[in-house]
Amino acid sequence: MEGNHPASPDGPDTSPVHGGILARAEAWARQPGPLQRLLPAIAFVGGFCWDVFTIGRAIKPVDLWILSGYYTICATILVLRGRDAHFRGSRYLNLALQFFLGNIFSALVVFYFISAGSFWGFVIVSALAAMLVSNEFLERHYEKLTLSWTLLTVSGVMLLNFILPHLFRSISPLWFHASTAAAVALAALLNRISLRKHKLWPTIAVALVLMSMHMMNLIPPVPLVGKRLVVGHDVRRTASEYLVTVEPRARLMFWRPTVVHKAPGARVWCASSIFVPRGIETTVSHHWLRLEAGQWVTKSVVPFPIRGGRLDGYRAYSFKANIPAGEWKVIVETTQGQTIASTRFRVEESAGGPRRTRTIRL
Fold this sequence. Notes:
Blueprint: H1 21-30, H2 34-37, H3 39-54, H4 61-82, H5 93-114, H6 119-137, H7 146-168, H8 174-193, H9 201-215, E1 225-232, E2 234-237, E3 242-246, E4 258-262, E5 268-275, E6 281-292, E7 295-307, E8 314-320, E9 326-334, E10 339-349, E11 358-361
Parallel strand pairs: 4-10
Antiparallel strand pairs: 1-5, 2-3, 3-11, 5-8, 6-7, 6-9, 9-10
């Protein structure tokens, strides 16, 4: 007997698409294809670009409110996914999660790592971003939602490490440990609300790794942010800016250390610009070290007070007279010895001093 048979629920939906642009876009996204499989990565990159253009590089209270909103949205989406919620538009939850996690991590890259000049920090965030994108491609190999919850915990640790010092007007290292504990506790609480439980051990393991990195001085002491750190031949202060005389470097050889050609008896100067949130006052130091017999030896430590409020950073400088030739390094650090920024350079004796110079404005 012939008749109409319902389409198999396991087969692709080949019925014609009716409706507006949104319905057509939804149908396109559900079709198998290489571009459709890249949608999570596209959403993540889109969140990154949106964040770069809307938040910027200076850490302002409104930025923290924005990121807190993103974090809340991500946590809500994960709870809804864990409870298998179905409503109009629920099929877009995964892309929304990718987009807002992309926003959070891009802000952390801009604020936390790139601004602080930490190479290893940038590598770690890049690896986390790759894990985030790969979560959708390797879904069969991971317990569902576990990696997303872990990444949310990491973003919570980093975000709270900005928020708590702003709230309490303090840059004590205690706030990093408090941020870590609060983010893990929040993940555990939301896990209880979610019906589909996920394993907490990856979240706890990542938190322990972050705390270990903090103790090994691999994570910069936010909310202090190293904006600029340069060495040169002179620093002059005007009414509104600092003028630093430096030697130009070849742009295609940026990996090489700075070379300072010093005339006999001339000083070598170091100028720094450090962002500090409004209301925070603390002390930082310029730590001058010289490489001797394969070891970095302290030659001088110049402390100075800094206070927050200037978006381009609080500026300060130090110098060394009668500095011998050799390999040198200046570390800008807190009173606890945490590195905010550092620069390595080589001093060479030159009877005529530098051949060419240019001026950097701080």
